[in-house]
Write a structure and sequence with these properties.
single chain, 211 residues, alpha+beta, four-stranded mixed β-sheet, 10 helices, 9% strand, globular
């Protein structure tokens, strides 16, 4: 059995979960309380971030490393021969340039859904330590501008998806799975956000979930 430690909104954990589903590997999910990471620290030997994957005595951190690990566990065609560079490059793009905009769009909604005040205020505090005091409030105020940035970033992807079912090549790859994880984070924050960027993103996410 594989155990995935996650925050339920983490794009990096969500994409790992999509990969586990596509590989049809049995797993259990353990949601880590944002302000209580004792079990996670014990399992990982001191790391406090998610996702963390535990399997057969191995502890794998970082979503890209987890992807590489899981892809070796079963025969699959999620990185098609001859498409390795394109698939991994798109995955890396979603984890960097795209994530940088989407997490700003999603963060206010994620914070609002945290029931424990300690979790919510710690979440905001951590964001403010990196991006400045009041950043989450500013992102909520500037949501339209951030959505416009996301539209620009995703325009080539949407153009591709208007002509094909998948982002890279003619079948599902890790590129699609990575994109789905980031879109699921935005949907978690507020179901109205994805259609605001493009209704086609919601259709893409639904199609992948239905596989």
């Amino acid at each position: 059995m594989i155990t995935l430690y996650r925050f339920p909104y983490s794009c990096y954990a969500l994409k790992v979960q999509f990969l586990l589903d596509q590989l049809q590997l049995p797993y259990e999910v353990k949601d880590v309380p944002f302000s209580d990471r004792d079990e996670l620290i014990e399992v990982t030997g001191g790391r406090v971030m998610v996702p963390a994957l535990v399997h057969d005595g191995n502890v794998v951190m970082e979503s890209r490393d987890i992807f590489q690990y899981l892809l070796t566990l079963t025969k699959n065609d999620l990185v098609p021969e001859g498409m390795e560079a394109a698939a991994w490059a798109y995955l890396d793009w979603t984890d960097n340039q795209l994530e940088d905009v989407l997490f700003r769009i999603a963060s206010p909604g994620i914070a609002a859904q945290m029931r424990k005040p300690t979790d919510r205020h710690l979440f905001i505090f951590i964001k403010e330590r990196k991006f400045g005091t009041g950043c989450v409030t500013e992102w909520e105020r500037n949501r339209k501008e951030l959505i416009d940035k996301a539209k620009v970033l995703l325009a080539p992807t949407l153009e591709t998806l208007s002509q094909a079912d998948y982002v890279v090549g003619k079948r599902l790859t890790i590129a699609d799975i990575s994109l789905a994880g980031h879109l699921a984070m935005v949907e978690y924050a507020d179901p109205a956000l994805l259609p605001a960027i493009s209704p086609d993103l919601l259709l893409f996410l639904s199609r992948l979930r239905n596989r």
